[in-house]
Amino acid sequence: MSETKFRHSTARVPRLYKEAGKIVQKVREEGGSFKGLVFQSKQRSLLKSLYALVAETLRHGSELDALLRQTQILIKEPRLDPWLARVLITELVWRQRPLSGPAMPLKIVQSYKSQFLSEQNNLSINLPQAASRASRPRFIRINTLKASEDEVINFFLQEGWHLQTVEDVGTSEDKKYSHFLQKISSLSEREFIKDIHIPNLLVFPGNMEFYNIELYHTGSILLQDKASCMSAFLLNAPLGSTVLDMCAAPGMKTTHIAATLNNIGTIYAIEKHPARFDSLCQIVSQAEATCVKPICGSSLDFTHKDLPDVEYIIVDPTCSGTGMTSRKELFSDTEDVSKARLEKLAGFQCAILRHAMQNFPNVKRIVYSTCSLCPEENEAVMEEVLKSTPPNFKAIVPSNCTQWMKRGSNSYEQGDCGLYARPEVDLTNGFFVAVFERTENEYVLKEPIDLTQVEVGKEDLKKKKKKKDNKKATDEETVRAPEPVNPAFERMKRAMGNFNTALENGSANELNGDTIQESKSSKKSKKKKVDKEQETNEDFIPLEPCTEKKKKRKSHIDEEHLTETGNIHENNFTDSISKKKKKKKKSNELDEDADGDNIVAQDSIESAPVESISKKKKKKNKRNSE
Ligand SMILES: C[S@@+](CC[C@H](N)C(=O)[O-])C[C@H]1O[C@@H](n2cnc3c(N)ncnc32)[C@H](O)[C@@H]1O
């Protein structure tokens, strides 16, 4: 991680501490096995002491986090490496060894000894979660679709709360931020403050009881961590925009974007799981986010053909959640997130981000986020997707948060454009966000992706073309089938209609799978209709069945249905199409998900459209020259 680090002199910080810090960081951030990492260490003479020190540091993970927060040592000493600090505090507090030596980090940690000891006494060792929750501030977002900031602030003032302000501490962003952090970590009962970065976000003491507050029940305020507000903030979609939220439920970011748009524009909010889709509808309805069109389905099944004019996309996929401070495993057993799980998640994350980049030609900006602190799900995903996608997107560092968010690791290409919020420093949940903007090179835009040409297969295409030639077709459009009914789009249009009506009637919560999702019987009848159209239309290129086929494959590239083929470390993207087809076939044969359905390697799907474009271009050029 590229936290601003103190320039430790390697000669002065004892090797044992430095090496222990590195291992603790790896275990915490990457979920590696600590024993394995210790035994891989090159410091052979230190193995025994290293093992003991790392084990002790990891054992006190939750207490260390609490000590770092309570003493604010990382805020006051911004150049102190947080991982080295953990090791040194362990050495000092639990192993009771004085930190002697000239190295600055040792001196600094030693100077906090009395604070550590007194805070340690206050810590409820048996209830580390409760302690950490109470000592972290609570962020509350004002839903400006229902109440203005003034109304909400006045409400709290009338309830006897006091609004604190951040004093002017000069122009330095660093100073301002560390002053703000000190302020929010020491809010006393019934004090609150406005966040200095995100508009309409208030900060309350961690033990605030919000369940009795009416504004919370009416949806005028929402409990939303500052880190999670970063996505909509950085998406920065102007009024009137068309936005796509590819992983929407429960809808915190969707409703936040709706508020930033003031309901002027359109947000397509896609959620795959029906139960979560219901929650999404409920939250959207309660928030009065009328510009939101919820869709139940997999985002991987939708393209610009279904959702035209999408200009902004938010990709907030399922992740390991290692940044969620409420998740016990972060503190108690960091080895919970296995490498295999991380690889599967990263495979899905790459697939969905790549889908966003390749299938919406009008998109200007994409925000990718996770609540994970594992680089595998963050910088590595950025790198992999940028590497394997036509160079029409680049990662950018948004100017409005460079001063305070921590940058990702530059050991991944463009990784340092990614931004982290870290619990122990920012007093938020752990979070990662990356912003991508379209570059000048928009060749994907010029030729819409025609999946049929890839799916039909060469032989089928030749036959169709021959038939067409016989009929003296002169224009490509006549060779292509008339656009058939796209069931996904039809379903979506119907769902939107139903949802809007329900919203208008105030009964969106009542929408269920029957209205939003197509019933089995109507699916059957629609299929019959499409089949019939094919029978009667000789020239019909089976776009629909192919799309269906592709859909069937793609719908398995989701969180639970991932196979090892999604491993981002495999560099499959340069494979030839034929190799991919073989692989796809093999994978169809080999990979079965829990339901017994076949799964296809993602790379074979994702790279296909590019091939299709170049074929089409060749054809077009040939026709032009004729
Ligand atoms: C991290 S959560 C999203 C949180 C949400 N953005 C918010 O702020 O409230 C990820 C969501 O993506 C959904 N999901 C997973 N695969 C999907 C897919 N292929 N298409 C659409 N949604 C999907 C999951 O069911 C889950 O609800």
TrEMBL record:
Region of interest (Disordered), ranges: 459-488, 503-626
GO cellular component terms attached to this protein's record: nucleolus
Domain SAM-dependent MTase RsmB/NOP-type as annotated: residue spans: 128-439
Keyword Transmembrane in annotation: no
InterPro entries reported for this sequence: MeTrfase_RsmB-F_NOP2_cat, MeTrfase_RsmB-F_NOP2_dom, NSUN5_7_fdxn-like, NSUN5_RCM1_N, RCMT, SAM-dependent_MTases_sf
Organism per entry: Frankliniella occidentalis (Western flower thrips)
Pfam families noted in UniProt: Methyltr_RsmB-F, NSUN5_fdxn-like, NSUN5_N
Protein name (database record): 28S rRNA (Cytosine-C(5))-methyltransferase
UniProt keyword annotations, A-Z: Methyltransferase, RNA-binding, S-adenosyl-L-methionine, Transferase
